[in-house]
Amino acid sequence: MHPAWGVAVVTFLALLGAAAFRSTPSVLIEPLHQEFGWTVGTISAALSVNLALFGLTAPFAAALMERFGIRRVVACALLLVAVGSGLTVFMTAAWQLILLWGVVVGLGTGSMAMALVATVVGRWFVARRGLVSGLLTAASAAGQLVFLPLIAWIATSSGWRPAALTTSLVALGVVPLVLLLMRDRPSDIDVLPYGGTPADVVDPLRSGAARIAIDALRNAARVPTFWLLMGGFFICGATTAGLVQSHFVPAAHDHGMPATTAAGLLALVGVFDLVGTVCSGWLTDRVDARILLGIYYAGRGVSLAVLPPLFGTDLQASMLAFVIFYGLDWVATVPPTLALTRQVFGAQAAVVFGWIFAAHQVGAAFAALVAGLIRDALGSYDVAWYGGAVLCVLAAVMSISIRTSRRTTDQVGTAPA
Q: C-alpha distances in angstroms, 51 versus 21, 122, 246, 358?
């Protein structure tokens, strides 16, 4: 077996460990509200900071991986997640929630996620890139949701503090695996990338991480495709992590559904996300990525538009149908978006994708905060669901409008597609 697959497995586990914390906020909104009296808007503000930093850290994390290596950056990131989540058990004020949940954990999780996926796929794989990006994306996204039943059960039976400590221990437990088994580049063990030739080996960038990130942004900003991808990913983040992941459980609770049942439904979304994202990666190797993105966003918009009437005290077949469909579509957008980024930006693709992913998380932060404020003002999330549906239609139009060409690639001074 080519060593690239071993690196992919370790990356999968690292993303899964970091994803444990991503499961925590949605099931802890209500317990924190009851214990401290904080409004949903206040708690959503901390979550919004986390989501924003989760994205804004990504391009700099990709640059740090170029400068210092994947293993060091990922190990430090997992430690940040563990420390930030563990210290929340001592908090007594809302600013501490924002500092720990928002800043510390946001920096830690942002140093992995899609920047790590783009870096590992770009360095270690030439063949099967779409499939591997789908698998690793599924680890990050599905892991966030699969942990939900466990976190919800612990929070319900033992309180929110043991739930927070559980996520801390999960992240900490992956650190030894990363230090022992992760390798930075194929050249470290004298092999070529999977399916590659010596021409596919890219020398590491040794300049400052900040300079790498800023230069990549400056070059990419000249290309219209970059802004269309950023706009689509902003909406992608708003309608997944920001809206559904953050507020589905409290919205279901508003209609009388137990939090554990709602968390189980989100976990089921994660299971089908694993299937959908892997299939999307397979399709990305064979179908025009722009067409795939248009279909994914349009389908997501339809599903959000029909969601509000499906909530109720009992679990109905219609809600299960929504969960299955939404799960298949959850982050199926990542493999085609990453493929388009590689096609246009070549050697700078990992760092440029970090900026595109930053837009994803800014969108998530925006939606998490706005949805919480809508709930406080109107007593219902319905307006938030319908607004998300409209945004998805816009994202579908933007995706179909993307144009790629050899000339575009040459303009940014990177390798041709």
A: 12, 25, 10, 9
* Whole-number pLDDT of residue 20: 66
**Exposed / middle / buried, residue 173 (Cβ in 10 Å: 0-12, 13-18, 19+):** middle
Token pair, residue 60, equals 């700099």
Identify the three-state secondary structure at position 192.
Answer: coil
Distance CA 136, CA 9 (A): 9
pLDDT in tens, 108-118: 887 877 778 87
Q: What local confidence, expressed as pLDDT, does residue 233 receive?
A: 93
**What ranges in 379-405 are assigned the alpha helix state H?**
382-400
Q: Count CB atoms within 10 A of the CB of residue 405.
A: 12
Distance CA 128, CA 115 (A): 18
Q: What is the DSSP letter of 338?
A: H
Q: What is the reported pLDDT for 26?
A: 67
Dist. CA 196–CA 121, nearest whole Å: 12
pLDDT tens digits for range 144-162:
666 777 787 888 888 888 9
CA distances from residue 189 to 7, 198, 356 in whole angstroms, order as listed: 12, 14, 31
Cα dihedral value 183, 83, 143, 40, nearest 10: -150
- pLDDT tens-digit series, residues 42-78: 887 887 788 778 777 877 787 788 778 888 888 898 8
Amino acid letter, residue 233: F
Say how far apart CA 226 and CA 340 lie, in whole Å.
Answer: 9
Determine the Cα–Cα distance for residues 378 and 298; give it in Å rounded to an integer: 27
Q: Are 335 and 282 in contact (CB under 8 A)?
A: no
Global confidence as pTM? 0.71
Residue among 374, 294, 380, 371 at smallest CA distance from 337: 294
Residue 263 to residues 146, 253, 300: CA-CA distances in angstroms?
Answer: 9, 10, 20
Q: What is the dihedral of CA 399, 57, 19, 33, to 10 degrees?
A: -100
Q: Whole-angstrom Cα distance, residue 417 to residue 409?
A: 7
At 44, the amino acid letter reads S
d(CA 336, CA 17): 25
Question: Distance of CA 245 to CAs 113, 256, 266, 272, 370, Å?
Answer: 16, 18, 7, 14, 14
Q: Distances in Å between the alpha carbon of 72 and those of 116, 148, 182, 396?
A: 12, 28, 9, 38
Gap between the Cα atoms of 335 and 159, Å rounded: 38
